[in-house]
């Protein structure tokens, strides 16, 4: 008899239903990461054949929600995982986290106009004495540190949004477009691995020297003018960035 969690009449493939149920349980912490999810147990639980169970576990492995130990079975991966698609628009990450049920929150600090470091000036092609809007955004998901973003925005001198305007998904670039009509055209990203320095380790609640994934982004307005720079630091096991190339 099929598990009541499976709807045989829904039209949704069985493997997809199994996959979504298990994913939700892993995210919520309902599954013990030390207890293997064997195919035999899952077949008995869901009342389906081996094929949809195998496919569900394959998909969950690809997404990073489970991992396999030879001769022991498949185990849940604890922590938050975000598989960011290539077509996710600038400023939509917060909404994306909400849609995944990860209950995001963010805090913004250090809002002021400053002369940025030389590498940022070079990327944005600004004068040596030009001041940009600068702030740091700390993002959490499910109550756990998720990312630390260091942000510089090239904008008119009177553009100085408040913490309330930027907290919990508020985008400085969206505010800039609303107030001055400066709209984004595209963004360029660079990603690499590094190790956590003291400040990064404290922000993400990890030991100093832990591996990190860094994604630097330059934002361009219509006409190709660089208007913003962001350096986002993530725990690498919790974030996967998709990208697409065309010929």
Question: End-to-end span in angstroms?
Answer: 51 Å
Q: Please report the total strand number as a whole number.
A: 10
Q: CATH superfamily name of the largest domain?
A: Chorismate lyase-like
Put simply, the count of helices is 8
As for the number of domains, it is: 2
Largest sheet: 6 strands, antiparallel
CATH-derived topology of the largest domain:
Chorismate lyase
Structural class: alpha+beta
Strand content: 25-35%
CATH architecture descriptor text of the largest domain: 3-Layer(aba) Sandwich
What does this structure look like?
- The chain is an alpha+beta fold.
- The chain folds into two domains: 14-76, Winged helix-like DNA-binding domain superfamily/Winged helix DNA-binding domain (Arc Repressor Mutant, subunit A, Orthogonal Bundle), CATH 1.10.10; 82-241, Chorismate lyase-like (Chorismate lyase), CATH 3.40.1410.10.
- The chain is built from eight helices and ten strands.
- It has helices spanning 14-28, 39-46, 50-63, 93-99, 118-124, 163-166, 172-180, 198-204, and strands at 66-69, 73-76, 82-84, 104-114, 132-141, 144-153, 184-195, 211-221, 226-234, 239-241.
- Strands 4-5-6-9-8-7 form a six-stranded antiparallel β-sheet.
- Strand 8 and strand 9 form a beta hairpin.
- Helix 1 crosses helix 3.
- The chain is elongated and about 65 Å long.
- The model has no long low-confidence stretch (mean pLDDT 86).
